[in-house]
Amino acid sequence: MRRIHVIGIGAGDPDQLTLQAVKALRGTDVFFLLDKGEVKADLTGLRRDMLDAHLPEGSYRVVEARDPERDRRAEGAAYSAAVGDWRSARADVYGRLIAGELGEDQVGAFLVWGDPSLYDSTLAILEEVLARGEVAFAYDVVPGISSVSALASRHRTGLNRVGRPIRITTGRRLAEGFPQGVDDVVVMLDAHQTFRQYADQDIDIYWGAYIGTPDEILVSGPLAEAAPRIAALRAEARERKGWIMDTYLLRRNPGNR
Ligand SMILES: C[S@@+](CC[C@H](N)C(=O)[O-])C[C@H]1O[C@@H](n2cnc3c(N)ncnc32)[C@H](O)[C@@H]1O
């Protein structure tokens, strides 16, 4: 039976690869690297560097494929449909890779940014491939250090305050309002700097871009003061590199709800 490792590789720092991940890399015959377009080529390069650093030359095969693009114009109700179509197009690609590039008794691996359990669809896509019944395989998951853990460690802060909950959400959701019942909110996938919406409130921000990489930028402080600085740094970095990945924690003073 074909086997697949879904390996969390950390959020950018090659030293975040766990020993468990290295063991799984060493037990893999074929790596599937999915390229999400020119601007993300850096991320594919980093995955290749990890393989070079930990595996003997010639002991593995890499198969690169183009990851289908999502329709980013879809908003509102059309958003879920667009994500569904995208997932299904990705399942076509993943199914073809597993059936066509992996021998019956071989082990394949998908290297997932950060941790596979957080805002990543690899596991759902593999389930969809299995549900179609066209190719059989077993898979396991190796956890990775998520960008959320990396953010908290770089700012030397906890995510929650004593006995309090936290929320992890997206920029899209934050735009609909500050989440109810929590004061500590981690925001991912925010292309629009939605934190600016809350700059008139008593909130501290802990922001990080390209965390763990040589381009890392960190800013923290009261949101009203930090927001314009982050906006300027973010625009400059995005222009220079062509893409940006940033995550932030908003910490509201409960007295100011
Ligand atoms: C598709 S999600 C993948 C998250 C990933 N599975 C994880 O565990 O971190 C991509 C989002 O993760 C965040 N992210 C990932 N790597 C990052 C990094 N090195 N620095 C800052 N944010 C990062 C950003 O919010 C980005 O929009």
Please specify the SSE layout and strand pairing.
Elements (H helix, E strand, L loop, with lengths): L1 E7 L10 H8 L3 E6 L5 H14 L6 E6 L10 H25 L5 E6 L9 H11 L4 E6 L4 H8 L12 E4 H4 L9 E5 L14 E7 L7 E6 H19 L4 E7 L5
Parallel strand pairs: 1-4, 1-5, 2-3, 2-4, 6-7
Antiparallel strand pairs: 7-10, 8-9, 8-10
Helix pairs in contact: 3-4
This protein binds S-adenosylmethionine.
Enzyme class: transferase
Pfam family, one: TP_methylase
Pathway: Cofactor biosynthesis; adenosylcobalamin biosynthesis
Describe the fold and architecture.
The strands form two sheets. The protein has a five-stranded parallel beta sheet, with helices on both faces. A five-stranded mixed beta sheet has the order 6-7-10-8-9, sandwiched between helices. About 35% of the residues lie in helices and about 25% in strands. The protein has helices at about 20-25, 40-55, 75-100, 120-130, 145-155, 170-175, 225-240, and strands spanning about 1-10, 30-35, 60-65, 105-110, 135-140, 165-170, 185-190, 205-210, 215-220, 245-250. It has two domains: about 1-145, Tetrapyrrole methylase, N-terminal domain (Cobalt-precorrin-4 Transmethylase, domain 1, 3-Layer(aba) Sandwich); about 150-255, Methyltransferase, Cobalt-precorrin-4 Transmethylase, Domain 2 (2-Layer Sandwich). Strand 6 (about 165-170), helix 6 (about 170-175) and strand 7 (about 185-190) form a beta-alpha-beta unit. The longest helix is centred in the middle third of the chain and has 25 residues, at about 75-100. The mean pLDDT is about 90. The chain has seven helices and ten strands. The protein is of the alpha/beta class and about 260 residues long. The chain starts with a strand and ends in a 5-residue tail after the last strand. S-adenosylmethionine (SAM) binds near residues 119, 120, 189, 208 and 210. Keywords: Cobalamin biosynthesis, Methyltransferase, S-adenosyl-L-methionine, Transferase. Its EC number is 2.1.1.152. This is Precorrin-6A synthase (Deacetylating). InterPro entries: 4pyrrol_Mease (IPR000878), 4pyrrol_Methylase_sf (IPR035996), 4pyrrole_Mease_sub1 (IPR014777), 4pyrrole_Mease_sub2 (IPR014776), CobF (IPR012797).
